[in-house]
Amino acid sequence: MLTETTGRTAPDLTAELENWRGVDWVSVWDGPPQGGSPEFREWCERYGWVPETFDRQLNVTTRSGGSWTFFDVLGGQWSPVESLTHYPWHVKAATAAENGEVLSVAAETWPVYLQAAVAVLGAPTWSGSWDDEDFPEPPVPSYWLSREFRLKKRRPYEFAYWKPAGDVPGEPYIVLSQSVSFQTWTADLAGGSSIAVDVYAPADFLDRR
Q1: What's the rounded Cα separation, in Å, for the pair 175 and 197?
Q2: First to last CA, the chain
Q3: How far apart are CA 40 and CA 152, in angstroms?
Q4: Most CB contacts within 10 A, which of 19, 76, 139, 193?
């Protein structure tokens, strides 16, 4: 039997992305003040974030119940921040015999979550599958994996991204991607699939750091 581990839904993803409307992206990329300080609490409360951890990477729970991880430029220093990640869906098989079902459920689920993102973000700049000939190169290498890796590992399996649409300072690139674990392609290991949202600081903003 397949198990979905996040307890989240496509409407939850829509709510998560709605939460980011009106965020001061410059303050996000600058990173939080010292953990546990009054300034830190104020920084989180501004957007209804509840911190889950105070060491290494910052994790917060949003007002709609989603968990987000902040990744900083230096690694474990909290600031400046270069990206955030949220997993709105993850399914895993109990046995290898269910791997075919993983692929079927993944194929059914991706368009539902993509549409949930489109409801907030509009049409993506590009969307498609791992083997599409016109799969785009990332504007910054760290935004998504290289063509060589993708064609070898089939990751990301499905993909969509949105480039900054306005003139908001620090407005991010947003990536929605689906991965399929390598075990799913085997006959003796139980596999799984997940959907992730990655929010990246724009290249010109990172260049100024």
Answers
A1: 6
A2: 48
A3: 43
A4: 193
